[in-house]
Structures are given as C-alpha cells and as structure tokens.
Amino acid sequence: MALYLAQGWSFARFGARMLWPLWPFVAIIALYHGVTNDIETGGEIILRMLIAVALANLVTMTTTLNDMIDVLMRLLRPLNWFGVSTKPVAITIALFIRFIPTLIDRSITMLAALRARSAGKSGWRIIVPLTLSVLNDAEHVANALRARGGVGTKDKG
Amino acid sequence: MERSTVLIAVLAALVAALGLVPKFTLAFGVPITAQSLGIMMCGTVLGAKRGGAAAFLFIVLTLAGLPLLAGGRGGLGLLSGPSVGFIIGFPLAAFVTGWVMERVQTNVLTSSFIASFMGGVVALYIPGVIGMALILDKSLMAAFGLVSAFVIGDLVKVVICGFVTQAIYRAQPEKVLSRS
C-alpha cells in the first residue's frame, strides 16, 4: 500500500483498478466464509491473494516491456551454449507485437462490414475470414523473411 | 523454419485479437470471449508443437505486461491470482489439442471436435481448477463449482472451433498444418 502511494496518488489509483477483476472471487470467498461462520480464515485468504497480486502488479507497473523482454532474452541465453539460436525467438516476439494492432484493426473492420450487411449480430462469423487472411499474411511475411536472409538458423524448412 | 516462426507469431497475435474483440453473450447469459477459441484453433490449425509454442508466446508476453488477456488484463499479477492455472493451462491446452488432432485421423470436423474438447476443456480445466483451489484454499470440487458455468461456454467454443477448422480446411487445405 505504502509502496503504491510512494509513486503518487494517480499511480495508486491505477494500481487499485488493476485489482478490480478480483472482486468476484473476494465476494464468493466472503460469502462462503460468512455462511460457514469462519470469517477469520476467509479474511486471511482474501488478504493473502490481494497482497500477492498487488506486489506482482507493482513489478509490472514499474518495468517497461523492453526491460521485460531483455530479461527474457537473458534468461534464454544459456540455450546459445547448447547451439540453439535465440534469434528466432526474438524475431517471433517482435512479429507478434507488430501483428496485434494490425489484427485488431482488421477484426474491427470485418465486424463493421458484417453489421452493415446482415441483420444478425453474431460476431463469430468473422473468425473464418479473419483466420484465413491471417494465414495468408503469414505466408507473405515468411517469404519476405526468407528473402532477407531468414531467421538465422541452419535448419531449412 | 521461417514459415513456422511467422505462423507461431501470427496465431499468437490472433489469440490476442480474439480476446479484445467485444464479448459475445450467450442466450443464457454466460459472457464468453473468443480467446480460448483462439487457443483451440492454435492446436487444430498448427498442430501440437507450433500451436503450443504460439500459446506459450502469448502467455509469456502477457505475463511480461502486455494487457492482452480478455478484459485487458496482463502482468505478473496473474500468476498470483485465482486464474493462474488457466493461464498456465493455455499452452498445455493448445499442445494437447494439436496432439490429439494429429492422431485422430477421421474427417476434419470430427477430429477438431474431439481435439478441441480434449485440449480446450479437459487439459485446460485440470490445471485451472487445481490453481484456483490452491489460491482460494478450497477443495477441488468447490473450485470446480466456481468455474462450471464457463464449461458450457467452452463446449460451445468446441463446436465453433470444429466448424471453423473445417471451413479453413475446405478453403485452403494446405494451411491446416496438423493435417500435412
């Protein structure tokens, strides 16, 4: 709590909002232990859960994604000693992050197109065209990667 | 090699996109997102190894702080929350789905049904329920009671996953790697 407040009021408020998804569990535990007249254990479980999640969130909120990925790559470095290249891992992470906004844009466009043309509201229908378009993209990107020297392993596939 | 790398990245991104697309609410009121459908599709489309890798990539980056999980959640806090087992279960679910898909060689629709049920429901809920029981200090049965409402939604997703995989297979059979 003090750690959160040390970063300022808005930081602490954001931290509190990050704990919000836990409320159904807190409610259920409180209810369960309220009924079984065992409020102390219930409170202990809730408190333990909240503190553990809050501490982990604190790490996330004070560390940038780049730093996290750096740590990840450093943890993977021992693989290099066994002759396993970590370069494909780095490329995969970069591609993954790059593709997320693209795919979100595309699914929103597809949903809009679907709404404009059909009376039904089921958004499930975009999944097939979305997946097919994504698989096609993957083909293009793979060719582009190969043309620029591949992902840097001896394995040809 | 390039193809696998890109496919893993792209399918992981698809899982992320499916989690952020607005929720669809079923007729009986259980809100479900398409995220676990994405996990099943990783398995049915990419097969065990690549599908598992895609789901693993998704989870690692989510834990590193990207808010990709349905509802905009992400970060290390997930590891100490009640859904920790489901988070860890994602790669396992994709792997098992792919593994079953590669071995049950009936028609694509039936195999996808069986595979996504074994992976997306059985292999996902076992670690999920255990994790929840540990964090909340409840018995396994009590923890299962908490999540049982979602099983219905996941069964619906198993059916959808089957039809989606079949549709993809019909359109471009060479893209369903678990079958080639």
Molecular structure report:
The complex is a heterodimer of chains A (157) and B (180). Chain A has 157 residues and is mainly α. Helix content of chain A is 76%, strand content 0%. Chain A is extended, with a radius of gyration of 23 Å. The N and C termini of chain A lie far apart (52 Å). Chain B has 180 residues and is an all-alpha fold. Chain B has one domain (2-179): Arp2/3 complex 21 kDa subunit ARPC3, CATH 1.10.1760.20. Chain B has helices at 2-20, 35-46, 48-63, 84-103, 108-136, 140-171; strands at 24-25, 31-32. Chain B starts with a helix and ends in a 9-residue tail after the last helix. Residues 26-30 of chain B have low confidence and may be disordered. At the A-B interface, helix 3, helix 4, helix 5, helix 7 and helix 8 of A face helix 1, helix 2, helix 3 and helix 6 of B.
Gist?
Chain A is built from 8 helices and no strands.
Number of domains of chain A: 2
Order of helices and strands of chain A: HHHHHHHH
CATH architecture of chain B: Orthogonal Bundle
The string of secondary-structure elements of chain B, in order, is: HEEHHHHH
Structural domain tally of chain B: 1
- The dominant shape of chain B is globular
Strand order of the largest sheet of chain B: 1-2
What portion of the residues of chain B fall into strands of 2 or more residues? under 5%
Q: Write down the CATH class of chain B.
A: Mainly Alpha
The low-confidence runs of chain A, each spanning 5 or more residues with pLDDT under 50, are none
Quantity of strands of chain B, as a count: 2
Radius of gyration of chain A: 23 Å
Category by helix and strand content of chain B = mainly alpha
Q: What is the radius of gyration of chain B computed over CA atoms, rounded to a whole number of angstroms?
A: 15 Å
State the secondary-structure class of chain A: mainly alpha
| Sheet with the most strands, sense and barrel status of chain B | 2 strands, antiparallel
Estimate the helix proportion of chain A, in percent: over 70%
What kind of oligomer do you see? Answer: heterodimer
C-alpha end-to-end distance of chain B: 15 Å
Overall residue-averaged pLDDT value of chain B? 81
